[in-house]
């Protein structure tokens, strides 16, 4: 369920009236993963962004969020905020409601610097929490905000027992620009320290202001566990480095998704200048 929830994609035309709001700038900080709304059985996602102003003067930031297809989609109840000096503000999406995925752009005033992180939380029905609460948070992950870069290196992994995947990386790539981004993904993969294989490149075209989210095994099905390779129920971890190269600056973010109990862990994503 958790993997499917994070990998929902739709395509809708973007109004020309929104284009001036979406132009990327070098001082922007992007949050690549915002998830909110119902996922069935009383469960729902809520996300937040934490804004930190370390300066001795107030700083104003505008906040615009876009769905996977690039459509402007407000996720918070405001589109700008003023941060007092040396303070932290955290903004939350709504709780239950229609399920949505999006990415957000935080733009400070020219010359200002704001540190940003996001948080995704999964809530489930509970009778163990005090009234008037009816849901308890069962999973949560905080992800640092990201700059833009044309090339990224991402350490990725897959944990399995025989052909059953217990833990795998999932990747988000955001194109904040006004033109389509051409993206190539190449994987240096190690089934063991002395067994290295290269896969790819896998080519993706990401529309303007759009986001693509895929699991590692969806991007590279060759690494999925195969019965003929893993006949015995032994636990093993395979890992490697995924290199993302684009013709435009993009933002790359990732999560480790563990099962059968869904747990998310933030992944390291390293931009290259």
Write the layout of secondary structure elements.
Layout: H1 2-5, H2 19-22, E1 29-40, E2 43-53, E3 59-67, E4 80-83, E5 87-92, E6 100-108, E7 115-125, E8 135-144, E9 149-161, E10 164-175, E11 181-192, E12 195-206, E13 210-215, H3 216-219, E14 235-258, E15 263-266, E16 270-272
Antiparallel strand pairs: 1-2, 1-6, 2-5, 2-7, 3-4, 3-6, 7-8, 9-10, 9-14, 9-16, 10-13, 10-14, 11-12, 11-14, 14-15
Description of the molecule:
The chain is mostly beta strands and about 270 residues long. About 5% of the residues lie in helices and about 60% in strands. The protein has three helices and 16 strands. Strands 1, 2, 3, 4, 5, 6, 7 and 8 form an eight-stranded antiparallel sheet that branches. A hairpin with a 2-residue loop joins strand 1 (about 30-40) and strand 2 (about 45-55). Residues about 1-25 have low confidence and may be disordered.
């Amino acid at each position: 369920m958790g993997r499917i929830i994070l990998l929902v994609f739709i395509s809708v035309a973007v109004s020309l009236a929104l284009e001036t709001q979406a132009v990327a700038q070098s001082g922007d900080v992007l949050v690549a993963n915002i998830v909110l709304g119902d996922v069935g059985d009383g469960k729902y996602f809520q996300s937040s962004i934490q804004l930190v102003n370390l300066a001795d003067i107030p700083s104003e930031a505008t906040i615009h969020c876009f769905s996977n297809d690039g459509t402007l989609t407000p996720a918070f109840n405001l589109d700008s905020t003023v941060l007092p000096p040396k303070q932290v503000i955290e903004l939350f999406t709504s709780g239950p409601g229609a399920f949505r995925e999006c990415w957000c752009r935080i733009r400070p005033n020219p010359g200002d610097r704001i540190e940003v992180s996001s948080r995704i939380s999964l809530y489930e029905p509970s009778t163990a929490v005090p009234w008037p609460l009816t849901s308890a948070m069962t999973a949560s992950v905080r992800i640092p905000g990201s700059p833009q870069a044309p090339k990224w290196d991402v350490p990725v992994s897959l944990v399995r027992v025989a052909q059953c995947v217990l833990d795998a990386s999932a990747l988000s790539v955001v194109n904040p620009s006004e033109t389509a981004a051409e993206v190539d993904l190449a994987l240096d993969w190690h089934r063991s320290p002395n067994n290295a294989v290269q896969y790819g490149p896998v080519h993706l075209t990401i529309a303007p202001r759009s986001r693509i989210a895929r699991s590692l095994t969806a991007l590279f099905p060759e690494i999925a566990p195969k019965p003929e390779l893993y006949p015995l129920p032994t636990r093993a971890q395979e890992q490697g480095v995924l290199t993302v190269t684009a013709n435009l600056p993009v933002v790359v973010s990732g999560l480790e998704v563990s099962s059968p109990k869904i747990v998310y862990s933030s992944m390291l994503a390293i931009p290259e200048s």
